[in-house]
Amino acid sequence: MANQQKTPLFSKLVDHISREPHSLHVPGHKWGSVFPDFARKSFESVLKLDATELNHLDDLHDAQTVIEEAQQLLADVYRTQASFFLVGGSTVGNLAMLLSVCQKDDAILVQRDSHKSVINGIQLAQAKPIYLPSEYDKKTGLSTGVGLNTVIKALQEFPEAKAIFLTNPSYYGITRDLKDVIKIAHQNEIPVLVDEAHGAHFGVGEGFPSSAITQGADIVVQSAHKTLPAMTMGSYLHVNSRLISNEKIKYYLQILQSSSPSYPVMASLDLARHYVANLSQEEVATILESSEEFKSLLKKVPQISVIELSETTSLTIDPLKITLRTNCELTGIQIQSLLEEQGIFVELANEEYLLLVLPLAPFKEGEYIASVIQRVLKPYRTIKRTSKKRELSRRSIVKLTVDELDRSNTTFIGLEEAVGRRVAEPIIPYPPGVPLLIPGETITQENIEMIIKLIDAGTRFQGHANLKETGLKVFITDERKEARE
Ligand SMILES: Cc1ncc(COP(=O)(O)O)c(C=O)c1O
User: Fold this and answer.
1) Which residue's CA lies nearest to atom 7 of ligand 1?
2) What's the Cα-to-Cα distance from 203 to each of 51, 207, 385, rounded to whole Å?
3) Could you tell me the distance, in angstroms and rounded to a whole number, from the CA of residue 114 to the centre of ligand 1?
4) Element (H, E) at 412
5) Virtual CA dihedral for 260, 264, 270, 271, nearest 10 degrees?
């Protein structure tokens, strides 16, 4: 292994600023000296790292020195052919992956409950997605990703597909073993792309799931900023493929990412890699222990339960994710509000669940937080709840391309009258950012009930502040239906 003690990019930046350089270049804050006085203190140390592409600080889009070395150290840790720093989150990684594998009218097999960036990437590529339904856990109703049989059938039916795009783990940390899916796709010479946004820490040691990249996936994108100590927007893209070239990926990354990528974000990616590479197995064991201890304290609170899966042979839950189910008269969102009053902020809440994300470090606040949860929930009655299956529309093919959709006439229609019509814009509850409806899909009664339920529970829909009043945008004629046959 290479010398993982090194932090080439971060160290070069620190060295540069220690020489008290005079800036006659961008950015305009001049290492923080030109900045509103009242805010300077808060930003000071970050602005000292906020450089630009000076000769000795390399260039993300043509990395040759310190950024190249930092990326090679990353590739060394994740055992890849090539790994790239991303400054636009996994969002840009997903777009680049998709544009690298498919062009206009190409078929691509895609997990239906993907993040909106995946749906957007397909639109940009003007590809024809074949959406694969996920399976759902019986006990919790949560998505467990696409099963092997679904992939096998899809490969038989669509041998012309240019790639398979999967999301693993889910937002809730539910992780599926992908080895068999990858094996069968490769037997068909089809690359597997994985959105591993929530799994940048996978593979750190025993007790954590392994990354899709070590299971043989061709390209994997990880939001380092979600579970590693990296700044927001900092992500990694890993390539290990004989089917897709690194050059193609690089080409799209330089198109999609800023020509002035943030040095603080990139330096934090260098440091996050250093952090992962230097975690000892003892530290990993302590992290796992503190997660287990926290869970056992939470299990003592009768008003909530810690979810477990009914099937555990090919599925696991990431130890950094804890999903609580409400067992009381309060919804998950109401519990979230009570906790916020106590200064405790969770990752996500909905009617039934609260999602907690633990740090990749021993969790020291577990006892305190569990005691607050116990105290604030004490007055509330426990009730028996059954999980609802959160299945998304099962219709699996949207054969319309973006320009066909763009050329269609649309109108708004009340929620109740929309059943049976085809939706003309994505409906995306956030978080988790998985579209409930994708343009071209037929709206079902179940979709409408879910939308109303989510609105009533206080869920935000991006770009739709007032869905109940505006209704849904649908296609006016049914010419499109014919186009699909
Ligand atoms: C599954 C999944 N993929 C991709 C993304 C986008 O990641 P980023 O925020 O790093 O752009 C998210 C964001 O929440 C996500 O949940």
Assistant:
1) 90
2) 32, 9, 35
3) 10
4) strand 410-413
5) -170
Pairing of strands 460-461, 429-430: antiparallel
Ligand 1 atom with minimal separation from the 92 CA: 11
Which range of residues forms the domain containing residue 427? 402-484
**Count of domains forming the chain:** 3
415-474 residue pLDDT tens: 989 999 989 888 998 878 888 998 888 899 999 998 998 888 888 888 787 888 889 999
Q: How far apart are CA 305 and CA 295, in angstroms?
A: 9
Q: Distance from CA of residue 469 to its chain's centroid?
A: 30
Q: What is the pLDDT of residues 94-128, one digit of tens each?
A: 999 999 999 999 999 999 999 999 999 999 999 99
Q: 111 C-alpha to center of ligand 1: Å? A: 15
Do the domain assignments include residue 461?
yes
From the list 411, 464, 400, the residue with the least C-alpha distance to 436 is: 464
CB 78 within 8 A of CB 213: yes
pTM confidence score:
0.93
Does residue 291 share a domain with residue 270? no
CA 332 – CA 334 distance, rounded (Å): 5
- Calpha distance 473→405 (Å, rounded): 12
Q: How far is CA 239 from the centre of its chain?
A: 18
Closest by CA to 49, choosing from 242, 263, 231, is 263
The Cα diameter of the chain in Å comes to 68
Angle at 231 between CA 228 and CA 234, to 5 degrees: 80
Residue 304 belongs to some domain of the structure: yes
Give residue 428 CA to ligand 1 midpoint distance, Å: 13
What tokens appear for 50 in the block? 């906020």
Please identify, by atom number, the ligand 1 atom nearest to the C-alpha of residue 432: 16
- 374/370 Cα distance (integer angstroms): 6
Q: Kindly state whether residue 387 falls inside one of the protein's structural domains.
A: no
Residues 6+ apart with CB under 8 A from 43: 32, 35
Which tokens is 129 given?
A: 């997605």
Per residue in 368-424, pLDDT (tens digit) is: 999 999 999 999 999 987 766 555 545 455 555 566 666 678 999 999 899 999 898
| Cβ–Cβ < 8 Å for 307, 323 | yes
| Nearest by Cα to 106 from 88, 90, 124, 91 | 124
